[in-house]
Amino acid sequence: MKxxxxxxxxxxxxxxxxxxxxxxxxxxxxxxxxxxxxxxTPIVTKHEGAASYMAAAYAKYTNSxxxxxxxxxxxxxxxxxxxxxxxxxxxxxxxxxxAVPVDTVGLNASQELHADPLYQSVxxxxxxxxxxxxxxxxxxxxxxIAMTGxxxxxxxxxxxxxxxxxxxxxxxxxxxQRTPLLPTDEVVMETAKTLASSESGFLFxxxxxxxxxxxxLELAETLNWPIVTSPQAKGLxxxxxPLKRGIFGFAGHExxxxxxxxxxxxxxxxxxxxxxxxxxxxxxxxxxxxxxLIQVDYDATVFNRKYPVDQPLHGDIDVTVSSLITALHGLxxxxxxxxxMAPAVPDVTEEFNSQNVLWSLQEKLPxxxxxxxxxxxxxxxxxxxxxVKSNDSFDINVHFGAMGSGIGSAIGAKLADPExxxxxxxxxxCFFMHGMELLTAKEYDIPVLFIVMNNSxxxxxxxxxxxxxxxxxxxxxxxxxxxxxxxxxxxxPNARVESMEDLNDENLSxxxxxxxxAVLEVALVxxxxxxxxxxxxxxxxxxx
Length: 544
Prior knowledge:
- α4 links the parallel β3 and β4 (93-99).
- The protein has 3 domains: 3-164, Rossmann fold (3-Layer(aba) Sandwich), CATH 3.40.50; 185-331, 3-Layer(aba) Sandwich (Rossmann fold), CATH 3.40.50.1220; 354-540, Thiamin diphosphate (ThDP)-binding fold, Pyr/PP domains (Rossmann fold, 3-Layer(aba) Sandwich).
- It has helices spanning 3-13, 28-33, 48-62, 74-88, 116-120, 135-147, 160-164, 185-197, 213-223, 254-262, 317-330, 354-364, 377-385, 405-416, 428-434, 437-443, 459-469, 483-489, 505-509, 533-540; strands at 18-21, 41-44, 66-70, 93-99, 125-128, 154-159, 201-205, 227-229, 244-247, 267-271, 292-297, 311-314, 370-373, 394-396, 422-427, 448-454, 494-497, 518-523.
- The strands form 3 sheets. A 6-stranded parallel beta sheet has the order 2-1-3-4-6-5, with helices on both faces.
- The termini are far apart.
- Mean pLDDT is 92; it is low at 538-542.
- The protein is built from 20 helices and 18 strands.
- This is Acetolactate synthase.
């Protein structure tokens, strides 16, 4: 059998359902084997970068391995940004790239590229395989590295001849399973005693609590401590929870800022946040000033990066928090009933601006909608204003910040969770980077609604320069384009909004509950300043 056939058999054993990428000469052998692998569907995209975002989102929402493939040379380089994104988010994605035949290395073969060094800084493991009998063992090794310890992306380069070489039929190794990380009983009990003896404190939670929200809420209620979230954790704590104090960091809330900057809580318990720039308002020292810092994370490298940690707990959030709750109960700390809170009703006015448009649209969409948020000025409005109506309802990539990622992420998220309504909120700048994945969604009948905020400019750049330098270059603007007409040319249902009155049932009925994707274009130039001032203050601090 060909060595690449063994790889596909291995994927089948691990219940891999999709391969994201684009076929090309150096990976044609791999795609040819998919004819005989009906359980795996190739999602052939329009750009490898978009494929990498799809794969990352699929890994995130299935909590399993995702596979992404590109050709040697440009296909491989197009995937690097997605690998860096997956590395930042600790997502187990296997990136496969083709490579020129082994005996042509260094001879200027077509699309020759020594790819494995490029991936080493953005993956947990990167290797080129030069012998056919080593291909399956190396891929198994890479998958094991991707899925164990701190999950993350890995990369294997596969020369054309290596893929096509016959090997003896190998035994398929067992697909790796991740073993949960748990601190020692002694560390858990010591931490529980610190929490129990604290007069006051608050929880600072990041997106690492995904999958452990119920335990986190139980812990907060047991301690009766308020909860502050990072921007990336938006959507994990419901708005109506009585302990929620809002978002701190990029586009955050005044109540959360007041608690951190002016509150007298003596302990801060950080759960699933690496305390990076966007989560901490540029590493605000008041988060830990005069406070005991307890931090829980499965990535031990986050401890003591910027903030000295008094009690680190190295472990998975779900099992660690559950153990803390049990220990607190043993110390006599019990959960007290909390008053119920009614969800806040947004105050939508008639002004045609980003805030009102997003509020109005959210009110008209299903309550359990998941929103994937792209990069742009609209992202600040989403973080600051949009409500959290159901669990895990926002995918916000502000920490890596790749424009166009929210488009591919929506497709990957929908494939991972097909029963959940999925909406991508993107901008015209992002759409011009990866908007042709709209056609990919159509070809596979993937029902994602793409809301495109079209202001004919790079809005975050425009506002950032206006705030920081008091001027913005005219070339930050873009040619005005009717994106709904672009969608129509692809045969995709669409509607265009030019006023608040256009957000009516007639327009929305054309794009909701359709079989495949749809586009809602919001043609809006909003000159209000987005809630992103702290980011600008940080950038303005240099060169003083």
